[in-house]
TrEMBL record:
Segments forming domain Glycosyl transferase family: 199-356
Listed name of the protein: Glycosyl transferase
Glycosyltransferase subfamily 4-like N-terminal domain segment(s): 11-147
InterPro entries: Glyco_trans_1, Glyco_trans_4-like_N, Glycosyltransferase_grp1
Molecular function GO labels: glycosyltransferase activity
UniProt xrefs under PANTHER family: SLL1723 PROTEIN (PTHR45947:SF14), SULFOQUINOVOSYL TRANSFERASE SQD2 (PTHR45947)
Organism of derivation: Flavihumibacter solisilvae
Length: 379
């Protein structure tokens, strides 16, 4: 355990599960601990809670359902978080995802504890104009009055909040995603075509339709009808019960038709990235900036993704990869075919430039500066 600095703060990370904190924010937490601060993670407990404590964090379990629309359970969440914050007395709180951002920010504000709301993406509530969106906007408008800063991962998301007067412009910061550890996601000496003998496309994501999984399968069908030889691999975890989840029957059908291979979920995507020739993410989800794109580019893979908000920011079209239209399997197939037919050295150069972009713009240590700056305000 590292010694605690004289000016150390107790910093809380509050999210809907320990898995996301461990997988998306561990590098930031390590930087905080190395700087002498104490970190406590507040979330529902899962198998990643112990991993976080092994890293030197404290862990405080709190139960809630991030997809529940029950106002009573939301009131209970507010009261629960307020009690947790009263007990822990953190100096600064970072909230992630919708319910912690709303009810956690309200609870912190009521107790006079400074907090930062990190909007990692707009999610389904902002896909439509209905009563749910109206309610969510009212809740955000109230909650974000209490925060020190509101962080977004792309300018379009920030503009949505500004247009609806949900947030004050002077409190808005635009982060370069949540960052990628370019030392961890690195394969020195990668050579073009170093993986499978057949050209291999890889898609890694939550198995949601809006991530473009069905678009990927259909693009594979189109390419196979053009008599190309290639593999399409899909990895990710299936969120049973999610309203946008890909049907298990569809996954089976796509595999039986030879459109995709589905090894399932992996905790370490690097071995799949090492053996792939191109990474694909045809998302039309309300993304922040997808971590999977950053990891793939950091591993020197050329990338194909969409003009969707949050996706296009991670790619320089025709330089580090290709952009395609959303929900357009034919356009995706064309871009995949274009990638497949490129000379291996050209693809390798794309991959190198992609890694250079990650180091220049998305390296996690650049993101840490935002944390360090706001911590300095309250230190």
């Amino acid at each position: 355990m590292r010694p605690v600095a004289d000016n150390a703060l107790l910093i809380a990370f509050v999210s809907n599960n320990a898995w996301s904190v461990y997988n998306f924010r561990l590098a930031i937490i390590r930087c905080l601990i190395e700087s002498g601060h104490r970190v406590v993670v507040v979330s529902p407990a899962d198998e990643y809670a112990q991993r976080l404590t092994n890293e030197g964090c404290a862990f405080f379990p709190v139960q809630f359902n991030n997809r529940s629309l029950n106002p009573i359970s939301d009131l209970l969440l507010y009261r629960s978080l307020r009690q947790v914050y009263s007990t822990l007395k953190p100096d600064l709180i970072f909230h992630f995802v919708a319910k912690p951002n709303i009810y956690g920010s309200m609870a912190a504000g009521a107790l006079g504890i400074p907090s930062v709301a990190v909007i990692t993406g707009l999610g389904f509530a902002f896909d439509r104009k209905d009563l749910l969106r109206t309610i969510v906007e009212k809740l955000y408008r109230r909650a974000l009055k209490n925060v020190a800063e509101t962080w977004f991962l792309n300018r379009e998301d920030a503009q949505v909040f500004l247009n609806e007067a949900l947030v004050s412009a002077q409190n808005v910061k635009i982060l370069p995603g949540e960052g990628v550890d370019t030392e961890y996601f690195h394969q020195p000496g990668k050579s073009a075509g170093a993986g499978s003998p057949a050209f291999t496309f890889l898609m890694s994501c939550r198995l949601l339709r809006s991530k473009g999984v069905a678009v990927y399968a259909e693009a594979s069908r189109i390419l196979k009808n053009r008599n190309h030889q290639f593999n399409c691999i899909l990895i990710g975890f299936h969120e049973a019960g999610h309203p946008d989840a890909v049907d298990a029957a569809d996954l089976t059908d796509w595999q039986e038709q030879g459109l995709i291979s589905f090894p399932g979920f992996t905790e370490d995507v690097r071995s799949f990235l090492e053996s792939a020739d191109c990474f694909v993410l045809p998302s039309y989800y309300n993304e922040g900036i997808p971590r999977s794109l950053l990891e793939a580019a950091s591993m020197e893979l050329p990338v194909i993704t969409t003009y969707n908000r949050g996706c296009k920011e991670a790619v320089r079209d025709n330089i580090t990869g290709f952009l395609c239209n959303t929900r357009d399997a034919a356009d995706l197939a064309d871009k995949m075919e274009q990638m497949l037919l490129l000379p291996p050295l050209t693809r390798r150069e794309m991959g190198k430039k992609g890694r250079e972009l990650m180091i220049e713009k998305f390296e996690v240590r650049k993101v840490y500066r935002y944390y360090a700056n706001v911590i300095q305000r309250f230190g």
